[in-house]
Write a structure and sequence with these properties.
The protein contains one helix and 24 strands. By secondary structure, the chain is mainly β. The chain has a nine-stranded antiparallel beta sheet with strand order 7-8-9-10-24-20-19-14-17, with no helix packed on it.
């Protein structure tokens, strides 16, 4: 099942499976979300919950008991319920169940709220702790932006001039090795060589927006004021780029496994909720 929301400028379509955005089209029928060709990557814009990235040995502990979670958690692979719909807004809900409690022993509700305002699509994540103890979690986005022209024709424009230090992955875990992305006037030309060691992981950034330019012309902007961390990723020769606002990231090799003590983890008090949002603007 799918749901579509729209205004006079944009139309966005969301699968109920994973509450996954799979299309943003403008009123000229231009598509801005990656088509999901499995030859490169079979997804479009999955939600990452209740972890972002990879756990050491795909394992963590709560009060000394071991649990297992795959990379980026389980929400992206589960069916959400559509609980509210208007012309330009849709709200999807995933609630804890026997299946989730075996992997993640917390009573929760995760809502994904999609709203179109003018030429922007806003994605809000709402996490509700329905349990009687503090709930550790991470949440992140993974939208793949379609790049229909030659990959090297595109460039990133970071909002602020800063030292763009990123961490390298080793065996899907964050290593202590870092590199710095070279910029000129806050610009980074795109090339596949940047991603030969997988994603670029920025634990902290001063820039809270990233604009994609196509031959110096503004194409699309991702704004992520609420997110301290960012992943950027593509696959070799793939015609897309993922701009991934994160609250949390992969384990390091030194991780103890205790989810409450994981670097970058959020702790939500019992019977409380947490909201965060980012937006994709067509330029």
């Amino acid at each position: 099942m799918t749901t579509t929301i729209s205004n006079s400028i944009l139309k966005a379509s969301i699968k109920h499976a994973g509450a996954e955005l799979f299309s943003i089209k403008d009123n000229q029928n231009n598509e801005y979300i990656w088509e999901g060709n499995p030859d490169f990557w079979g997804k479009h814009s999955p939600v990452l919950f209740p972890i972002v990235g990879t756990l050491k040995n795909n394992t963590y502990t709560i009060h000394g008991k071991e649990y297992h979670l795959p990379r980026h958690g389980f929400a992206r692979d589960m069916d959400f319920e559509l609980i509210e719909k208007t012309e330009n807004k849709a709200v999807f809900s995933l609630k804890s169940s026997e299946e989730t409690l075996r992997k993640y022993p917390f009573e929760f509700e995760l809502q994904l709220i999609y709203t179109i305002n003018e030429s922007s699509l806003e994605l809000e994540y709402k996490v509700i702790n329905n349990g009687s103890e503090k709930m550790p979690f991470s949440i992140g986005a993974h939208p793949a932006i379609a790049l229909p022209d030659q990959f090297e024709n595109y460039a990133f424009l970071f909002e602020k001039e800063e030292n763009l230090k990123y961490y390298l992955l080793e065996n899907d875990l964050i290593s202590s090795k870092t590199k710095t992305l070279e910029t000129k006037n806050n610009l980074v030309p795109l090339n596949y060589e940047l991603f030969k060691n997988d994603a670029l992981i920025f634990k902290t950034l001063e820039s809270k927006s990233l604009t994609i330019l196509n031959n110096t012309k503004p194409y699309l902007k991702v704004t992520y004021n609420d997110f301290p961390s960012l992943g950027i990723w593509t696959k070799e020769n793939a015609p897309f780029i993922c701009i991934e606002p994160w609250l949390g990231y992969s384990d390091t090799d030194e991780n103890s496994g205790d989810l409450y003590k994981k670097e970058g983890i959020l702790i939500l008090d019992e019977n409380k909720d947490f909201s965060t949002k980012f937006s994709i603007t067509i330029l």
